[in-house]
Amino acid sequence: MTIADIKKNAEAKMAKTIEAFKSELQKIRTGRAHPGILDQVSVDYYGSPVPISQVANVSLLDARTISVQPWEKGMGAKIEKAIRESDLGLNPSSQGDLIRVPMPPLTEERRKDLTKVVRHAGEDAKVAARNLRRDANEHLKKLLKDKAVTEDDERRAQDDVQKLTDKTVAEIDKLVHSKEAEILAV
To answer: Are 167 and 27 in contact (CB under 8 A)?
Structure first.
């Protein structure tokens, strides 16, 4: 493994960390409706748990209402039950084949709780980035120990990995601040 490989590997993994953090933020609901909120809700489909998006069409009716249109007649009641029993605090209502999921407005206390959840998820993502930095630095030290690189090259590579980590942490902080602003906006 060369220094370039180590840097490329660390960069790719840090990009994946940011993507995973973005998808984590998608799951945290704000006052507005978002079809991605229902992604983690599974419904029983012929004996196996399946995401709602695979058995129904999930879309927005307006800024505060999600519509769920099951593809099969008998799935409506199961989907409604799955949404109601999820930990999202949503109360769906059926209108024929269409299931309407109104988003209740967030209370001030709930908004503050959600900002804490966002900050905690941000810290977890930063820890993941720092662990990747540590792994890359260990690989660099191993190359130095095996005399595959010079001390100067190893030092420069560690500085590059640190800059990459700083950039990743700054991106995570930016995402945390924008999500907090989105949650606190009334």
So the answer is: no
Which CA distances in Å does 176 have to 26, 39, 93, 97, 154?
12, 21, 33, 38, 33
Provide CATH code, domain 35-102. 3.30.1360.40
> Which neighbouring-strand residues pair with 70?
56
Amino acid residing at 5:
D
Burial label, 93 (beta-carbon count in 10 A; 0-12, 13-18, 19+): exposed
pLDDT of 35 reads 77
* pTM, rounded to two decimals: 0.70
CATH code that applies to domain 3-27+107-184 = 1.10.132.20
Phi, psi of 31 (to 5 degrees): -70, -25
Contact 145, 18 (CB under 8 A): no
Q: Which of 39, 72, 44 lies closest to 58 in space, CA to CA?
A: 39
pLDDT tens-place string over residues 160-180: 999 999 999 999 999 999 988
For residue 85, give the nearest of 123, 47, 52 by alpha carbon.
Answer: 52
Measure the CA–CA gap between 19 and 165, rounded to whole angstroms.
15
86-111: average pLDDT: 82
| CA gap 103, 53 in Å, rounded | 18
* Single-letter amino acid code for the residue at 100: R
